[in-house]
Design a protein that fits this description.
single chain; alpha/beta; Lyase, Ornithine Decarboxylase, Chain A, domain 1; TIM Barrel; 2 domains; eight-stranded parallel β-barrel; 12 helices; 30% helix; binds ligand LLP
Amino acid sequence: MRQLSKNDSDRLRALATQYGTPAYAYDAEIIRRQYQRLESAFSASNAKIRFAMKALSNPAVLSLLADLGSGVDAVSIGEVRLALHAGIPSSDISFTPSLPPIEVVQQAIDLGVHVTVDSLSLLEKFGRTFGSEVPCSLRINPHIKAGANKKVQTGHKKSKFGISVDFVERAADLVSNYGIKVVGLHVHTGSDVADAEIFVRSAEVLFAAAELFEDVEIFDLGGGFKVAYRFGENDADVELIGAKCAQIREQYIQRSGRRAEIWLEPGKYLVSASGCLLAEATTVKKSPAVTFVGVDTGLNHLIRPMFYDAYHEIENISNPSGVPQKYTVVGNICETDTFAKDRMLPEVREGDLLVFRSAGAYGFTMASQFNSHPRPPEILVDAEESRLIRRRETFEDLLTAYA
Ligand code: LLP
């Protein structure tokens, strides 16, 4: 079986010919492999996986994951509705919004999904509105700095996310005043987290907090498992993380005599490696100091390098044995949208096909129509088959919402 990984140049060239560039392509087999690896790494605690669909929200991908047994974590009513549209049952959808008004929470509850409350203010409104009638989870901010990239850390003291671990007792007071049924505790410390101890420490914060909430039986450890962005790099050691989490869960069960169901919300881990962005080198431009490669895409389609200083491997599929030269690869947007600075690539000629790797997560979902460029299509490759799972936008799509 051929996959969209190294040595897949023929396949990628064929996709570019069939669907044009720029285009996102995802390999179903890689998504399945990642899901199964994570599921088996956490098998000792029988963890439930709820895919963080913000990473890749195409309904075809959601339903592929649902076939494997995955649920979905959604952050907006739009995502909830998209997941329902993809056929995910509401009982398999959790809603983890950031600072929503109570009306949005009401809509989520009307749609039948499980809500995570992320502030004391919302908890109070939740209590006033629903009393003990609707179960919920609480997101705790554990005050833990996780991962190397500050821009994707969400569990530190100054982060907007979650209820500070210092305020857990205040949360418990509100819960008892209003009789709120808190059935779960949630933590997510950030993205690109490789260190198993971060997951252990966050889980410990939840197990300790559970003592204040008698109905809690769900422990949602979030997502954030690091993935490889450079060739030769490794994903997070999920087997180690899974084994350690199983151990501390067991200790909690022993000492408390209570149930503990583990939930996970991975985004990148499931889909990052599966995806690539195919682009054409449209211009090779030499200036005295730099040789630029301009491509037919930009920060409007893949913003990670510009927004997070993220590294994506770039390959010149058309000329793999060309003499390596130093290039700065830039987009076609009227901003400084640099994909890669001073990158060694086999000689790039105008018209060559370039591939941006590990673009399955937060690639298409963070794409925009900036500069009035339509968004690219999405293609799902499964073994020898490929199919369009979202067509290329057209000029008419740009017009649809104007008055
Ligand atoms: N759960 C919650 C509550 C989250 O906020 C996120 C990501 C996840 C799960 C999934 O995290 P993951 O496993 O994908 O790391 N756009 C950035 C990453 C920001 C993630 C935001 N929240 C990037 O492209 O690096």
